[in-house]
Amino acid sequence: MAPQNKNEFSQAVKRIRVWYALLVLVLAVFTVRLFYVQIIRYDHYRAAALSDQLKQYEIPATRGTISAHDGDSVLPIVLNQQLYTLYADPLFVKNRQAAADKLAPIVGGDAAKYAELMNAKKSRYVVLAKKLSDQQQKAIAQLKLPGIGTVAQDFRTYPQGSLASQVLGFVNDEGQGKYGVEQALNNRLKGKPGQLKAITDANGVPLAASRDNTRVAPKNGDDLVLTIDLALQQQLEGIVAQGVKDTKATAASALIMDLHTGAVKAMGNAPTYDPGQYFKVDDASLFQNAAVAHPIEVGSSMKALTTAAALDQGVIKPDTTYYDPSFWIVDQFRITNIEEDGGAGTRDLNQLLNLSLNTGATWELMQMGGGQINDKARNAWHDYLANRYMFGKPTGIEQGYESPGYVPAPADNGAGIDLTYANTAFGQAMTATPVQMAAALSAVLNGGTYYQPRLLDSVVDGNGQSHQVAPKVVKRGVVSAKTGQALIPMMQYVVQHHNFSPGFDQNTYTVGGKTGTAQIAKPGGGYYDNLFNGTYVGFVGGDQPQYVIVVFVYKPTNGGYAGTAAAQPLFGKLAHLLINDSYIMPKRQ
Amino acid sequence: MRPRQNSQGRQRAAIQSNQLQLGRGRRPDYWLLIWCAALLSIGLIVVYAISPALAAAHHVNANYYVGKQLLAIGLSLVAFAFTAHVPLQWWRQAYKPLLVIAAIATFLALLMPVNPSYPAHRWVRLGSFSFQSVELVKFAILLWLAGFLAKRRQEGIIHSRQQTLKPILYALAIVSVVVVGVQSDLGSAGVMVAMMATMAFVAGLPMRRILLISTVVLVGLVLAVSATPYRRTRLESFLHPEANCQDSGYQACQALIAVGSGGIIGLGLGSSVQAYGYLPEAANDSIFAIYAEKFGFIGSVILLGVFIAFFARLKSIAERLPDDFSRLMVIGVLAWLSVQTMINIGAMLGLLPLKGITLPFISYGGTSVVFAAAAVGLAYQASRYAAPRPPRVSVAEPSARPGLRDTTVRRPI
User: Are residues A377 and A268 in the same domain?
Assistant: First the structure.
């Protein structure tokens, strides 16, 4: 064999081996790289993998239901219903028009609209329809359209329709309680969502059992039972609505409170709305429960509380009489009474309240200062207004958007503070809500204990355990028990000397009240000449007052004094309602 | 030693050189088959394991992918049997019709409708049957170049610039224009160029020529990358993978995450997560990453070991073959399959840019496995003529000089 031959052959073999050595070298580099990626950097890539793959899902908690009393039983007024929201992930929808054409017959509506929605760029979640039923959901699932899905969502239903809607509030699309109890007790109602941590595919669908999956069960919201009595509530709402109609008022509020516990038995306003259709309401003020959210200058109704404060301080006695000059000049301003009050003369406290003498209430304030309106008078009266009757701050009732109202500060501001305070003695120049008035009057009548007004009667927790909510005492000794006992006959006197049809038999029941015809401040200062709010605070009971009733009628236009002509009849109807439907034990004969 | 040839003599030699000098056939190299079968089995297992994930994503029967892969393996066996039994002599002549068919297929692929946003004319569809024309081109070029280089060696003009280098450069140019320019398949072009360069290298082209070819290829590569925006972004995302995880570097990032999260022993056969929509092309180009996620470092090294064992058989056969054509052909098969393996795995490990080519025998996909099996069939047939022992190569060996023309090689004694 020729050596060249041999050489050339050797050269080929040698080059094969050189080349092969390079191949082995590259694969050795790969091995080193594998070692680096899989062992040294394992934690980094494992974390990166989990951050992509491990997704957290919220398992929604079921929102608590809301019930209320109906005689001895408890009836639900807010329940949940599972409905479905239809969504699309445009990235995974293959043929949008075809998908829309298939969906439209099931969901209803226009296929073109759905196709257009699905054309949304950049969005991975487009809501196509809401509140679909179980059947619709199943029909959609059977289409097996890629990128189209449904999520279950609880929606509120209202078996009692619009009853107590402003007390209840509603739940918006994000699951947040808005207004009323739903807002105030949102945290208790909504519960705590559970959590599912699961390894998922790239579309977020959890893969079957993985050691990295964990599940925390949701804690469902508490079921609430309100202090509301449904029968009373229904009739109160009817009476209020009728009252607005009869008095041609813009609106009215009324509530009935158990004066020994602060529990609200019925509370309503007119006009109102249907919470099942809340999204159709244009005027957001309709959502407000005016009885807690809309403070006004209460007018002469305040005189009952002014009298109680003066009695409690001992600066007047129940049998005190005084000379009423029919006007006072305070800060160069003339405080007068209405014409029917009969001019100057000697008056007692019954007359003061019955004739609703502004000069009388001013006189009471003067007595607090030792005969004139001064620092002492203002401070003493402010103490009662702010620290005992709790005006100027929210009561804490379980309602959204409660308003604090307003009480002027007693310090001399050099701008007619005495006149301002004289005004507060008869319910002007300060504002309060019906629920504040009811709570303050309750405290006077029940012997001096201010209970926080409340709507929550009991709570049924997730284990079905029922917890009674105890009345919450905010302040004891608001006034002495004697003061309350002294005020009761004076307010009865007022009822006896006003026209009610039918009237009240004070031998069987204890019924007292005080009217208020409140001037309405103009936005620019001063008061309207021809617009008033009618207010009424009163009580009804057997041997002792049992319920406080507060009625506000806003801007009635049926003539007469608003307190007497508009608010008083509603009080009468509500008081009779309590008597006739046996909410009250008659006096022991 | 033959006398110096004139042109007529060269023709005579060409006729002679078409006869293979193989000698008597022996027992073929069964280990080549065993390792190849091992690779196919691993691939089938991985495809089987992720078949449900793929099926869910594409709304087909859960066993659709396994079924198709089994069909591809069946076709591969047919292709293997065919190339292993039709004599090498015939294959040496077959490059002409094969090139014609490959050209027609490439032309047909051009006519097929493609995704307008990604206009790569790679697929030929005839009814329900479809294949990637580039695999046929590879196969045809392999046979042509092995024959061409063997002939040039026999003629003793392997060093000739005109007779040897020029045709190779032309072939390179055609391959580049067609495969890179029209089919947008830089990966396959790279495999072919590497295959051709390896064969030329082993055939004994002077190192300077090899370097020249390399330079030309490099310049072409730079041009190809800079001329097309998507290759630029791919290169960009290769250089800065973490910065482009959400867009252009997504596949590269997800591949590394899959590999890295496998750890030492892997998540287990049934526990791959990345196949569930995270890692694109999980069954095809990215299958190594899925494998590494399932079987970890240990499994990955074992797979590399099987590849090495398989390549070692091809190398060993090539070393022991007495004949230029068959040796160069086996080297071509080795280069084809090994370079494709390196490009694929390198990309999965973040060492090379993504190229969109399959992992031989492991990846799902009919065309690549059928042609790879066909190529192995050729090597298997050739192995029957390999000498039992590898040749000794003297340490102090004079380098090849021009002028050595005798290419008839006998088995060493």
Answer: yes
